[in-house]
Amino acid sequence: MAAEIIDGKAVALAVREAVAADVATLERPPGLATLLVGDDPASAIYVANKRKQCEAAGMRDLHQHLPGDIAQDELAAIVEALNADPDVTGILLQLPLPDHLDAAPLIASIHPDKDVDGLTEVSAGRLVLGKPGLRPCTPSGVIELLDAYGVQIEGAEAVVVGRSDLVGKPQAQLLLARNATVTMCHSRTRDLPSVCRRADILVAAAGVPRLIGPDSVKPGATVIDVGMHRTDEGLCGDVDFDAVSEVAGRITPVPGGVGPMTIAMLLRNTVTAAQLAAVTA
Ligand SMILES: NC(=O)C1=CN([C@@H]2O[C@H](COP(=O)(O)OP(=O)(O)OC[C@H]3O[C@@H](n4cnc5c(N)ncnc54)[C@H](OP(=O)(O)O)[C@@H]3O)[C@@H](O)[C@H]2O)C=CC1
Ligand SMILES: Nc1nc(=O)c2c([nH]1)NC[C@@H]1CN(c3ccc(C(=O)N[C@@H](CCC(=O)O)C(=O)O)cc3)C=[N+]21
For residue 42, what is the domain's CATH number? Predict the structure, then answer.
């Protein structure tokens, strides 16, 4: 039995329509400041998509394309100016940055109520403590997909492969907050396939092309592929899609799975940030 394909494009479209409806009820359109430093081609495509969808949802696109040789203190000053600017609802610093820049202090300096990527220390703390706040886009998009397909999270065995600050760690926290039994795997995990086979919900975010094969999947499990790799044959994920589809109950494709959700949740977060700003104004 082939697995049901989880259609991230369709769910993302529904989220964006709901966001546009929420934007229409706000007094002022939210403004999203995307910062793209340098000319990484993949980042340029992502940021272009974010900007296009931001405008389509009725929000203001406050993009800045900065030179690849910008100094750390210049970039820090731009973030500070955006923090202070009431027209700026959300700030997104596209990663990775060029090698001479240190991303950590820049991310840390983003005002937590404008942190639409959910990457600041305050946002991470709010997530862990179960307080309202802005959640990282990719893992919250994964939760949205699970909900859209009626996958039961409460009580489920969830295994997350990867423990990055951007994806794996917040993914585990979000699943835990929904009462899954969560296991986190990483590069030092002994016998990854046997741990993965416990999963009712398996989230692959290791950044290793086709790391997850059919021997790592319990029959009927829901498999979510966060990985994104450009190969000569096109895009692929961290999951061996063709082989795993024969075992899994549901599976996300790459492209058309988690990727579109990341952008939809960024727009959702921008509306949430506008609402947070309205409360504190
Ligand atoms: N679709 C989307 O919207 C997005 C997709 N991505 C994609 O998701 C993937 C992961 O991204 P990100 O979290 O930023 O990546 P990172 O490289 O920051 O983290 C990778 C994690 O996977 C672990 N890992 C690496 N190799 C293995 C292995 N062989 N077995 C088990 N664990 C392993 C690492 O372990 P350790 O900690 O021990 O080093 C690390 O925790 C990438 O392909 C990225 O392109 C990322 C963001 C958004
Ligand atoms: N500060 C920051 N926040 C991020 O959220 C962030 C980042 N930096 N750096 C890089 C990763 C990667 N990322 C993706 C966004 C959209 C798609 C996406 O739309 N993917 C489409 C395909 C796009 C294509 O064809 O290239 C899909 O999977 O269908 C993928 C990956 C966000 N990231």
Answer: 3.40.50.10860
CATH of the domain at 216: 3.40.50.720
Answering whether pTM is above 0.80, one says yes
Q: What is the pLDDT of residues 254-278, one digit of tens each?
A: 999 999 999 999 999 999 999 988 8
Is the Cβ–Cβ distance between 133 and 116 less than 8 Å? no
- pLDDT, tens digit (0-9, with 9 covering 90-100), for 104-149: 999 999 999 999 999 999 999 999 999 999 999 999 999 999 999 9
Q: Is 250 annotated as a binding residue?
A: no
Mutate to test the pocket of ligand 1, among 119, 163, 258 (most ligand atoms within 8 A of CB): 163
Residue of 22, 113, 115, 117 marked catalytic: 117
Under 8 Å CB-to-CB from 62, ≥6 apart: which residues? 31, 32, 33, 34, 87, 88
Protein residue closest via CA to atom 31 of ligand 2: 259
For ligand 2, atom 18: residue with the closest CA? 259
